């Protein structure tokens, strides 16, 4: 059972879960009430077809991911659910690091291009560039 962030925003007292296909709405409700002691008003479920992707090999065939069930759980009005911020302040640091590495990669690509260009110019002085 995984908490899933919805594509369209839900009210604060509703939570979206990704659960196995074998779990029913009754199972989800009992699971949340008995194990996590979360008050549940209603559970709506639907089966989502797994994504179909092209295989990463050279052979032309498709791979289908497993189907799963989405459960929208209604909590009482006084209970508010906030999705956890997994990265916190580290997300900005990670984005800065990625940007820095991309700049370094671009610099290395340009330097390599210049080096291969100069290797093809035998017996031509460096100041004679066009």
From TrEMBL:
One Gene Ontology MF term: structural constituent of ribosome
Record bears the keyword 4Fe-4S: no
Domain of life of the source: Eukaryota
Annotated protein name in UniProt: Large ribosomal subunit protein uL23m
One GO location term (cellular component): mitochondrial large ribosomal subunit
UniProt cross-references to InterPro entries, sorted A to Z: Nucleotide-bd_a/b_plait_sf, Ribosomal_uL23-like, Ribosomal_uL23/eL15/eS24_sf
Gene name as annotated: MRPL23
Organism: Dermatophagoides farinae (American house dust mite)
A GO biological process held by the record: mitochondrial translation
SUPFAM superfamilies (alphabetical): Ribosomal proteins S24e, L23 and L15e
Family the entry assigns: Belongs to the universal ribosomal protein uL23 family.
Record keywords: Ribonucleoprotein, Ribosomal protein
């Amino acid at each position: 059972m995984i908490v899933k962030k919805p594509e369209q925003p839900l009210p604060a007292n509703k939570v979206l879960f990704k659960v196995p296909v074998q779990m029913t709405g009754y199972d989800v409700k009992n699971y949340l009430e008995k194990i996590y002691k979360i008050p549940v008003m209603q559970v709506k479920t639907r089966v989502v077809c797994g994504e179909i992707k092209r295989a990463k090999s050279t052979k032309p065939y498709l791979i289908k991911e497993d189907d799963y069930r989405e459960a929208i759980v209604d909590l009482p009005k006084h209970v508010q659910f906030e999705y956890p911020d997994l990265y916190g302040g580290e997300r900005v640091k990670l984005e800065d690091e990625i940007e820095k590495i991309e700049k370094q990669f671009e610099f290395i690509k340009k330097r390599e291009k210049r080096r291969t260009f100069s290797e093809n110019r035998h017996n031509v002085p460096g100041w004679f560039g066009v």
